[in-house]
Every structure is written in structure tokens, then in C-alpha cells.
Specification:
By secondary structure, the protein is α+β, with helices and mostly antiparallel strands. It has twelve helices and 18 strands. Strand 14 and strand 15 form a beta hairpin.
Length: about 425
């Protein structure tokens, strides 16, 4: 959520920034309601001051054995007015909050302007494009032939978009998750968290998933809980309503979770096989940082995510997202995309975002250097480090052999009982 003073000072700029993110907001309505709210507060405070004065005067008259009935009647009228104004104020604040929570974060000045994902800017590439002297198979053909991914049985159990990993496929999934977590905890300095996979409405609202993305989420109505679309939700909420010691920042967490996304409206967009599924596994990176070091830490987080792709020796590129393609809550975002040769395109495997104080304001996460200092909002960052589904696609397609087997990347072999090649039964 944005600071209301920032909106008061720059209403046209905020409205333009929201439009650039394809999330138009009613800034004029916010300004009007904010003005009405402040006027109501002023009037209520005046009435309460009058009531306090009357109360003191009534006490004085009673002490002097004088008639206070007229003043008592007047104070009752004042109290009734206060109640009426308090009700108006509560309704005004409700309307104001409704509009405020629908204003997206403002893009950082370094974010390019664009109209769609086509306007994202490639900032770097790493690795060589693999070459093959045989006809390529895609991940569906490979996974089916090796009997390691079962799409029909997953659909039978749950529905489309819920594939089953079997045997060496399940082992590969587990190997990836353990490799990701070990790398981030042992080499990159993150503390591992194992969070709940369900979170309440307040937690999803705090990170900016709600209200905008409610239609994309799985909801358990009886318990008023949402299945998490990413462990960003529970992990960032760990410090909701807390004041952190600035000397301990940055606080860096990594967490595995299953992720659940309805993907409503994505029909026809990268929906083949394992490219876009409703349940997948991901290791998330989350940081709480001082505002002055926010963008320095953002680059470090991105480098940590990239280190996984380099260790797996997969060709990838880094995109700086344009304003129109960024998430609701992000101020700046990099996407990491891995090359999938049979798909003949790059696949997104990580988004590394800086939210500045947008999430922290919603969740009231602050820091201070000394107990005498005034607390200030932290900045929050997160990024996938990484999601497994498309990494498996990339491994199957990049490491396939002419014999229909798949070479196991070197860094994963210790996690796969020394296995060097995935073969059929």
C-alpha cells in the first residue's frame, strides 16, 4: 500500500503510474475521501473537546450545588453528534481503504515503460545454446517414454494441470528441491523456513495477493483459508506487526512449499504438459532489508537465483520487466528464463522483485537502530530460487540423448544416489 501523503503530494503521478501497470486506480476518489475523512476527524475532535469542557463544567456546577440540567442536555446532544460523526468517519475510512488497497505499487525509475511483455528488456544471457545431432523430443515425449511423468493419472485423480511424478522423476524433483535449499542455506546465507501451505486472508492481503488475485487462488471456504500460491505469503508474514533490529538486517529466508494456482484465463498460453500447472513445488527467497540497501540487496537476490541455473549448466537470460508486465505489488522485477530447446523458447523460472515499503506498510513491518529511534518501514524482496516444474522441462530437453535417456546434471548426482543417467525401466 502506498503512503497517503505520497498520493496527496503527487496525485497525477500516482494515477499515471497505476495506468502504466494496467491497474487504473481512482486517485480522485482517494483524494476526495481523504479530504472528507480529515474534515470529519477535525469536527469530531472539536465536538469531543466541547464535550470534555462541558463535562468539567457540569462537575463544577454540581459541586457548587447549582443547576446543570441545561448543560447536561447540551452535552447529550453533543454526544449524539459525536456518535453520528464517528459512524460517518468509519464509513468514509472503509471506502477510502477500499480504493487505497487497489492502488498498485509505483514502478521504480529504472523500470522501462511498455505496453506488454513484448517490451521487457533483456539485460544479460548466460550459457551456450546446446546442439543436437538427432531429432529432439519434448519433455512430454521424454517423460512418458521414461515413465517418470504421468499426466493421465494425475488428471484422473484431480484434473488437468496436476501431473504425477514417478520413480526417477519423483527422485529428480526431490533432488532439485534439496539442491536448491542446500545452496541457499550453505552458500548464499539464507535461513531455512518450513511454512504452512495454507494462509488466512490477512496474510494474503499483506503481500498484495488480495484483493487483486483472489480469482486465481484456491479457497477453503469452511476455514476461510487460501492455499498459498507461493511461500512468499507465509514467510513475509512471519514479521507482520513486528519491529526488527536494524543491526540484524538483512534478514534472509528461503522456504520450500507446494504452490497452488488456478491459472484462470491462461488457456492456450504455455499450457502444454508441465509448462503451466495448478500445483508445483518452489523454493522461495525472501529478504527484509533497510531502505538504503534495498536495490543493492535486490541485485544480490537475483544473483543467488542465477547461481542455481549456472550450477545446473542451463542456458538462461535475465529480463527487466516493463511496467505493464510487473505484478501489482512490485516496484521492480527481473525474470529469469531458461532455454528449452524442444520448445524452442525461453521459459520463466524465477521472478525477483523489490516491493520497497509497499508490503511492509500493509503488514506493519518496521525496523529501528536504537530503542530511542522512531521505527521506519523495512523494504521487502523476494524471488524464486527456483520453481521446479520448468526446470525439469529444461533438464529433460537440454540433457536428452539420442538413446532417449537423460543425463543427470553433475550437481544433482549426489542427491540422486550417484545416478548419472535417467533411463527407462
Amino acid at each position: 500500500m502506498l503512503d497517503i501523503q505520497r498520493i496527496r503530494d503527487n496525485p497525477e503521478f500516482i494515477a499515471e503510474a497505476a495506468a502504466r501497470k494496467k491497474s487504473p486506480a481512482d486517485i480522485k476518489g482517494v483524494i476526495a475521501l481523504d479530504s472528507e475523512r480529515r474534515e470529519l476527524i477535525r469536527e469530531v475532535e472539536q465536538l469531543k473537546s466541547k464535550r470534555n469542557s462541558s463535562s468539567q463544567e457540569i462537575a463544577k456546577l454540581k459541586k457548587e450545588k447549582k443547576d446543570a440540567e441545561a448543560l447536561i442536555a447540551e452535552m447529550k446532544q453533543t454526544s449524539d453528534l459525536i456518535k453520528e460523526f464517528d459512524e460517518k468517519l468509519a464509513e468514509t475510512e472503509k471506502q477510502l481503504n477500499y480504493l487505497m488497497e487497489r492502488i498498485p505499487n509505483v514502478p521504480h525509475e529504472s523500470v522501462p515503460h511498455g505496453e506488454s511483455e513484448k517490451d521487457n528488456v533483456e539485460v544479460s544471457q548466460w550459457g551456450e545454446t546446446p546442439t543436437f545431432n538427432f531429432k529432439l523430443k519434448d519433455h512430454i515425449e521424454i517423460g512418458t517414454a521414461l515413465d517418470i511423468i504421468d499426466f493421465p493419472r494425475g488428471a484422473k485423480i484431480t484434473g488437468a494441470g496436476f501431473p504425477v511424478l514417478k520413480g526417477k522423476g519423483a527422485l529428480l524433483e526431490r533432488a532439485l528441491l534439496n539442491f536448491f535449499l542446500d545452496t541457499h542455506t550453505n552458500k548464499n546465507g539464507y535461513t531455512e523456513i518450513f511454512p504452512p501451505f495454507l494462509a488466512n486472508r490477512e496474510s494474503h492481503w499483506g503481500v498484495g495477493q488480495l484483493p487483486k488475485n483472489e480469482g486465481q487462488m484456491y479457497y477453503v471456504n469452511e476455514d476461510e483459508l487460501f492455499c498459498v500460491p507461493t511461500s512468499e505469503v507465509p514467510v513475509t508474514n512471519l514479521h507482520r506487526n513486528e519491529i526488527l533490529d536494524a543491526s540484524n538486517l538483512p534478514v534472509s529466508y528461503c522456504a520450500y512449499s507446494a504452490c497452488f494456482r488456478r491459472e484462470a484465463g491462461s488457456y492456450g498460453k504455455d499450457t502444454k504438459g508441465y509448462l503451466r500447472v495448478h500445483q508445483f513445488n518452489k523454493v522461495e527467497l525472501v529478504k527484509f532489508v533497510e531502505p538504503e540497501k534495498s536495490y543493492e540487496e535486490h541485485e544480490k537476490l537475483r544473483a543467488d537465483a542465477e547461481s542455481i541455473l549456472r550450477a545446473l549448466e542451463l542456458k538462461y537470460r535475465v529480463l527487466l520487466l516493463c511496467d505493464a508486465d510487473m505484478s501489482f505489488a512490485a516496484a521492480k522485477c527481473y525474470d529469469l528464463e531458461v532455454w528449452a530447446p524442444a520448445e524452442n523458447k525461453y521459459l520463466e523460472v524465477s521472478s525477483c522483485s523489490n516491493f520497497e515499503d509497499f508490503q511492509a506498510r500493509r503488514m506493519n513491518i518496521r525496523c529501528r537502530n536504537r530503542s530511542s529511534d522512531k521505527p521506519r518501514l523495512v523494504h521487502t524482496l523476494n524471488g524464486s530460487g527456483l520453481a521446479t516444474a520448468r526446470i525439469i522441462v529444461a533438464i529433460l530437453e537440454n540433457y536428452q540423448t539420442a538413446h532417449g535417456t537423460v543425463v543427470v546434471p553433475g550437481v544433482l548426482r549426489p542427491y540422486m544416489n550417484g545416478m548419472t543417467e535417467i533411463t527407462g525401466k
